[in-house]
Amino acid sequence: MNEVRGLRCRHAFEFVCVHANGDVVCSIIDGRGDFVIGNVHQQSVSDIFTGARARELRRLVLSTGDSYCAAIGKTCPLKSIPFEPGENPPVQIRFLAIEPTTACDLRCLSCPVRDFTGDVTWRDAYRDGGVSFLLWDGLRRSKQHAADGVRRAIPLLSARTPAQLGRRGASLLRGRIPKSRTGTLPIHLLKRVVTEAGPWVERVDLFNYGEPFLYRHLVDALRHIRQTLPTTTIAISTDGMQVHEPVESTIVRERLLDWVIFSIDGCDAESYRRYRIRGSFEVAFANLVRFHRHAIGTGIRVLWQYVVFRWNDRDDQFRRAIALAEERGIQICFDFAHTWGRSRRSPDDLRYLTPYLKPFTALPGEARQDGW
């Protein structure tokens, strides 16, 4: 039996993630757009997925044996599937993620949207996140500005990819996210992407960064996906603040979704507002409860996703959230963050949460499963 050589992800081989500006990347992990393999404004989905840039992405993924991805120049939590020497993973679009818009009603701490939007700067860091976030965000933004300056001063560096720069160089020279990262997909383009992705797509995620319920063509987009890919699972993730009854009623009546995930990261207003800046626990939770009530018996599964940070990771907070969900018959899952503010608790103290973990995710300090 061959010795396992290293780790790979599934996304470079099975996943297409379309940003709201039309750029195509491997997954949500490349939220910055550091390794773009094409743009749907200029190319078909098939040409992008089978093109030279996509082949280079796969080569780079397999070029490192650990969880570091040479394509995007950083460690990827999704790079967790063992592979053996000589193995050629099958290449087929099985999963499609479409970010309809980068517009968002919140400015969550450590979310890339804070870097996209023009109304959030380092000056907001203290008010939103306190001293510790100000220090983290200030140092991060200062490093990015310095990296941009170095690249401008030394043109040779600007032409180098993260793989050419090496691990340390890629980290040090990662600059600001370009303003071109923002956008909203025209509905005709979104429909073309869905059609071109092909009948083998198993799941469509109509979300990435930004709030999908702010996309004014949302219902039209969902209808097209359902009509074009009738057996495909359709999912949306929302912060819950913009879920209004008219759109909700149409989605439920026409069964336009299979999954709707409400990201509500806390068990009360105090624990929630620490991360979800501009959000309201009461509003988001009320919308979750109402949507769940309307969806009963339709086949639409409503999920409460609780992203865990160090300020909402106490046992009493977990138990309160579980009780709130179970009282209303809502499925709840916990997903431990990997960004600034992540929980520092020992996984051994949290084993009781295993039945409530988001599928394929893991407790703090443990590896995610099966490339998800």
How would you describe what is shown here?
The protein contains 13 helices and 13 strands. It is of the alpha/beta class and about 375 residues long. Helix 8 packs parallel to helix 9. The relative contact order is 0.11.
- The helicity comes to 25-40%
Secondary-structure-derived class = alpha/beta
Query: pLDDT under 50 segments (min length 5)?
Result: none
| Order of adjacent strands in the largest pleated sheet | 4-3-2-8-9-10-11-12-13
* Extended strand count: 13
Basic shape: globular
Into which percentage range does the β-strand content fall? 5-15%
Largest sheet: 9 strands, mixed
What value does the average pLDDT take? 93
What's the arrangement of secondary structure elements?
Layout: E1 6-8, H1 11-14, E2 15-18, E3 23-25, E4 38-39, H2 45-50, H3 52-62, E5 68-69, E6 74-75, E7 81-83, E8 95-98, H4 113-116, H5 125-153, H6 155-158, H7 162-172, H8 187-197, E9 203-205, H9 218-228, E10 233-238, H10 245-254, E11 259-263, H11 269-273, H12 281-295, E12 301-308, H13 315-327, E13 331-336
Parallel strand pairs: 2-8, 8-9, 9-10, 10-11, 11-12, 12-13
Antiparallel strand pairs: 1-7, 2-3, 3-4, 5-6
Task: Describe the structure concisely.
This protein has 13 helices and 13 strands.
